Amino acid sequence: MDTGRHRRHRHASSGARAAATTAPSAATFGEVRWFGDEVLWLAPTPERLFRELSDRSAAVWPEAPRYAGEFEDVVPHLTIGEGNRATLQEAETELAEVLPLHSWASELWWFALDECGRWVRRAAFPFGR
């Protein structure tokens, strides 16, 4: 029987395997972009690492399509905000002054919705182990 606990263990094992086969990597967020008029985001460089992880996740969990299957191509990104365009334009101006941001991608984070509909980090799987 595939209980919720069994599914969570299977998903965690799959997440750990995906992370173990990924080398830690430097990432730069140097460009502010928009999805439509309501979502402000930063583009990662190199994009390949994030795209490959996203594609592997989609293959492991076909029952949970990325963004509920709404988009054919899922663009790797770091969401800054969604909603009020005027507020986001202010954030865009402030971000432009401090870009590029440099980071080190070393873990795969597993998020899930909680009972209040908020995204909560449920697990972290280190890369390259």
Q: What does this protein look like?
A:
The structure is a single chain. The chain is of the alpha+beta class and 129 residues long. It has one domain: Cyclic phosphodiesterase (Cyclic Phosphodiesterase, Chain: A). It is built from 3 helices and 6 strands, in the order αββαβαβββ. The strands form 2 sheets. Strands 3-2-1-4 form a 4-stranded antiparallel β-sheet. Helix 1 runs antiparallel to helix 2. The longest helix has 17 residues. The chain is globular, with a radius of gyration of 16 Å. The two termini are 30 Å apart. The mean pLDDT is 87.
How is this fold's topology laid out?
Elements: H1 4-20, E1 25-35, E2 39-45, H2 47-60, E3 78-82, H3 85-98, E4 101-105, E5 107-113, E6 119-126
Antiparallel strand pairs: 1-2, 1-4, 2-3, 5-6
CATH superfamily: Cyclic phosphodiesterase
Question: What's the architecture, going by CATH?
Answer: Alpha-Beta Complex
Question: Kindly, what is the distance between the CA atoms of the first and last residues, rounded to a whole number of angstroms?
Answer: 30 Å
Average pLDDT across residues?
87
Q: Tally of extended strands? A: 6
Number of domains: 1
Oligomer: single chain
Report Rg: 16 Å
* Number of helical segments with 4 or more residues: 3
Specify the CATH class: Alpha Beta
H and E string: HEEHEHEEE
Query: What structural class is derived from the secondary structure elements?
Result: alpha+beta
* Residues in β-strands, percent: 25-35%
Q: Kindly report the CATH topology.
A: Cyclic Phosphodiesterase, Chain: A
Please summarize the sheet with the most strands: 4 strands, antiparallel
What percent of the residues sit in helical stretches (DSSP H or I)? 25-40%
